[in-house]
Amino acid sequence: MEYWDEDAHLVLFAVHPERQRQGIGGSLLAWLEASAAAAGSQRIRVEARRDNVAGRSFYNDHGYHEVRLKLRMYSGTLDGVHLEKWLRLRSDA
Ligand SMILES: CC(C)(COP(=O)(O)OP(=O)(O)OC[C@H]1O[C@@H](n2cnc3c(N)ncnc32)[C@H](O)[C@@H]1OP(=O)(O)O)[C@@H](O)C(=O)NCCC(=O)NCCS
C-alpha cells in the first residue's frame, strides 16, 4: 500500500495460489483498510486486469466500485479496470 495525501493506493496484493479462497485475502484487506483509515486516507484505489475475474470479484465483494476501464493499460496490450472504495466522506463534500 502507498499512502498519498488523501488516498491510499493498493499497488500489489496477492495470496499464494495454494492458500486462496480461505479468507486470507479478505483478512489482509480488512487490516490494510483499517491501517489506511487510521492514516487518514479517505479512499483506497486499486487496479486489476480486465480479465482478472477472481480479483475483480474479490474487490467487488469488499465494497470496491469499478470506476474506469483503461484500454491497453498493462504492457500496452491488456486492458485494466480502476476500482475504489471510500472510507469516509470526501474532504470537500
Ligand atoms: C484476489 C486474491 C488476493 C483474493 O485472495 P483470497 O485469499 O483468495 O481471498 P478470500 O478467500 O478472502 O476471498 C475469496 C473471494 O474472492 C473472490 N474470488 C477468489 N478467487 C476467485 C475465482 N477464481 N473466481 C471468482 N471469484 C474469486 C470470491 O469473491 C471469493 O469469495 P468466495 O470464495 O466466497 O466465492 C487472490 O485471488 C489472488 O492473489 N489473486 C492473484 C493476484 C490478484 O489478482 N490480485 C488482485 C489484483 S491486483
**CATH-defined fold name:** Aminopeptidase
Named at the architecture level, the CATH assignment is: 3-Layer(aba) Sandwich
The helix-strand sequence is EEHEHEE
Strand content: 25-35%
Broad shape: globular
Low-confidence segments, given as residue ranges, are none
CATH superfamily: Gcn5-related N-acetyltransferase (GNAT)
Distinct ligands: coenzyme A
Strands side by side in the biggest sheet: 1-2-3-5-4
The CATH C-level name is Alpha Beta
Q: Measure the end-to-end span.
A: 25 Å
Summarize the SSE layout with pairings.
Elements (H helix, E strand, L loop, with lengths): L1 E2 L3 E4 L13 H15 L4 E7 L3 H9 L3 E10 L3 E9 L7
Parallel strand pairs: 2-3
Antiparallel strand pairs: 1-2, 3-5, 4-5
The structure holds coenzyme A.
Coenzyme A (COA) binds next to α1 and α2.
Write a structural description.
The longest helix is centred in the middle third of the chain and has 15 residues, at 24-38. The model has no long low-confidence stretch (mean pLDDT 95). The protein is an alpha+beta fold and 93 residues long. A hairpin with a 3-residue loop joins strand 1 (2-3) and strand 2 (7-10). Helices cover 26% and strands 34% of the residues. The protein contains two helices and five strands; from the N terminus they run E-E-H-E-H-E-E. It is globular. It has one domain: Aminopeptidase, CATH 3.40.630.30. It has a five-stranded mixed beta sheet. The chain binds coenzyme A.
